[in-house]
Amino acid sequence: QVQLVESGGGFVQPGGSLRLSCEASGISFSLYAMAWYRQAPGEQRELVAAISSVNTRTYADSVKGRFTISRDNAKKTVYLQMNSLTPDDTAVYYCNGKISLWSWGQGTQVTVSS
């Protein structure tokens, strides 16, 4: 059974930073492209960043230059470093596969506010 556990969210002021983590279990993690998604209240879930099995990275235009996705295959963990946060980044953040989708985890709340 695949399990995805996100952590690292919190409350931060505009301009601040957070680092999210997502630990996966039940999959051959290193073989899969992984991604971070987010869902703001009243909005659809959107893809934020993705990293392939060979560390090719892609980003939504809204986060380019501010967010960095990375992975540690030994720890079966994918990270999202978020800098220069704005209120528009407020959302619940989830990780999942980029192409293969499994059951969604509980997500981690990120709130950016002054």
Question: What would you say this structure looks like, in words?
Answer:
With 114 residues, this protein is an all-beta fold. It has no helices and ten strands. It has strands spanning 3-7, 10-12, 18-25, 34-39, 46-51, 57-59, 67-72, 77-82, 91-97, 108-112. Strands 2-10-9-4-5-6 form a six-stranded mixed β-sheet, with no helix packed on it. The mean pLDDT is 96.
Oligomer: single chain
**How many beta-strand elements?**
10
Mean pLDDT equals: 96
Count of separate DSSP helical elements: 0
The gyration radius over C-alpha positions equals: 13 Å
- The residue fraction in helices comes out at under 10%
Low-confidence stretches: none
Largest sheet: 6 strands, mixed
Cα end-to-end separation: 40 Å
For the largest beta sheet, what order do the strands appear in spatially? 2-10-9-4-5-6
> How would you classify the helix and strand content by structural class?
mainly beta
Strand content: over 45%
N to C succession of SSEs: EEEEEEEEEE
Relevant terms:
114 residues; six-stranded mixed sheet; globular; four-stranded antiparallel sheet; mainly beta
In short:
This protein is an all-beta fold and about 110 residues long.
Topology diagram in text:
Elements: E1 3-7, E2 10-12, E3 18-25, E4 34-39, E5 46-51, E6 57-59, E7 67-72, E8 77-82, E9 91-97, E10 108-112
Parallel strand pairs: 2-10
Antiparallel strand pairs: 1-3, 3-8, 4-5, 4-9, 5-6, 7-8, 9-10
